[in-house]
User: Fold these one by one.
Assistant:
Number 1:
Amino acid sequence: MPKKTIQVPTELLNALADAQHVVVFTGAGVSAESGVSTFRDALTGLWARFDPMQLATPEAFLADPDLVWGWYEWRRQLLLKAHPNPAHQAIVKLAQQVPKLTVITQNVDDLHERAGSRDVLHLHGSIFNPRCFSCAQPYPLKQAPAMRHEQALPPPTCSYCQGMIRPGVVWFGEALPQAEMEAAFAAAENCDVLLSIGTSGVVQPAAQIPQLALRSGALVAHINLEPVSCQHARELSLVGVAGQILPLLVQD
Ligand code: BJW
Ligand code: ZN
């Protein structure tokens, strides 16, 4: 299929050229072209096949730890095989072309880091940093048996308190990590341009970040497969895949 021609608004290119501080705020869509499933896309999203309330809450983990741990182990193994895509790479390049760039992600993968981004603020934790459910002691991941599909797997046990090891992600009803949250909100309030990439913008409190940037006078550009409704004069929607649009925002 021929690639769609995308016109980047001059207003955005000019704002990026003049910006002192750019914030890149990402969601699952930025990793979609790496083969990582999003959550809410109608046919391919994880929540089309799995019930978030049975997998992504502390109550679900306590009710069926093997189901939840096995599901996350399966996703972790898929992520180990994935590679950063042109969107992750363009963000690294953009960081070299502006005085300051902060990456804030809702993703639990490490594809920004593997592309070369530094000091990424992970609002929803990391699938690679499990910890004890009882005493929060970090757990060094060991190689698990290879999985070809999702399957139940008992979680390992904490060597300090014998508690169950849980995935290091933020589940529904849990607080976001405070330091990351404060740094992310401060960056949004102090940036000139915010790029909101591949997020449905429905999960709180992360969804407030573009709004905060707008209220602080920044230009906000949404980059998404779907048009994003823009209520503000300094808000733009660029429709298309992130891996095609992001490279158009950086110089070769
Ligand atoms: C592309 C593309 C391409 C595709 N290019 N674009 C009412 C009821 C119950 C709860 C609540 C409620 N109202 C508010 C809440 C709270 C809740 C919440 O917001 N729920 C809403 C869903 C209703 N929030 C919380 O519970 C948070 N905690 C909290 O509020 O705590 C309060 C508290 C304070 C103090 C003490 C204690 C508590 C925590 C939220 C945690 C979210 N966790 C998850 C799972 C992480 C672990 C895991 O990976 O399994 O995080 S949910 C899931 O959604 C994941 C994501 O990070 C997050 C956001 O999703 P994202 O990234 O936007 O993905 P999608 O799939 O939604 O969108 C992808 C987009 O990309 C789409 O728009 C596509 O079009 C686009 N796209 N391909 C460009 N190639
Ligand atoms: Zn423990």
Number 2:
Amino acid sequence: MKTYDIAAIPGDGIGKEVVAAGLRVLEACAARDAHFELRVENFPWGSDYYKANGVLMPEGGIERLKAFDAIYFGAVGAPDVPDHLTLWGLRLAICQPFDQYANVRPTRILPGIQSPLRDVTADDLDWVIVRENSEGEYAGQGGRSHRGLPEEVATEVSIFTRAGVRRIMRFAFELAQSRPRKLLTVVTKSNAQRHGMVLWDEIAREVAADYPDVTWDKMLVDAMTVRMTLQPQSIDTIVATNLHADILSDLAAALAGSIGIAPTANLNPERKFPSMFEPIHGSAFDITGKGIANPVGTFWSAVMMLEHLGEPAAAARVMRAIERVTADPSLHTPDLKGTATTEMVTDAVCATILGDNE
Ligand code: IPM
Ligand code: MG
């Protein structure tokens, strides 16, 4: 029997509700498969922890996480704590030291779910966005001087390194190559950003030479929003900078029906450090405590975690269960215009997993 050590960090708001639901699904999955078990440790880090202790994560937190096979994360952010503190104090404080440079965001229209785009069906929209997750606009470089004075100045410096761009391009070309259509769109803004983005384009061209079977094209980020909306069929795999992909992945999730469905993997592909899996939605304080958060994004993130752990059959089983459940509109949460609760969806997915004979 294999044992996987999972660090659960539910964080804030609905993060707590959806991670609890996701752990139930993972438990059902381990019970059904019987050849692996999960040892889960919960870490109560986040905004409540910050209010009590002045930090989002205790000193030595990263050291403790190192021993785990994967991290299952909910959301971070609270109305009464500045967002840049929560983000840098927890989520980026894990992504950066663990060098989780490849952020992978698949988007599909799941059974039973409708795209807000007229006439767009599941066959038309099946994308994976690869987000550069270690540098770019989120490098954290910059500062503020002359605070409060009329001459106050703030800089927010984007960093693009040859090594950083090269590794994410390689990752994206490889992912595109592994998918049936072998099609990659490199998103850029090199018309206006004439240093970092031009380097980005040059490296894309260099790396492309090593993947002659991958068809690729280049698209300015603004035009990409139009293409995603009007010609979703023309897209398969996408690679973009940290900020560009942040924005495009929200659009992608909305076009696939709801941001409540979309998953993320923050990968350290070399496996020197644990990778982290999370839904892309935030802490959603407007619906916190109501029991109506859509747990599907968190379940789909568990699928990505199982794939990463080397349990493809279990991952496929959870994905099948998710799709059987989304196919039933009576099991849609309010973000999908339904009336189901988090618990109803979770019960249904667990029961489907346990009863799955494939
Ligand atoms: C995401 C989120 C985060 C980001 C927020 C919470 C800072 O929007 O994972 O896409 O911008 O990276
Ligand atoms: Mg985002």
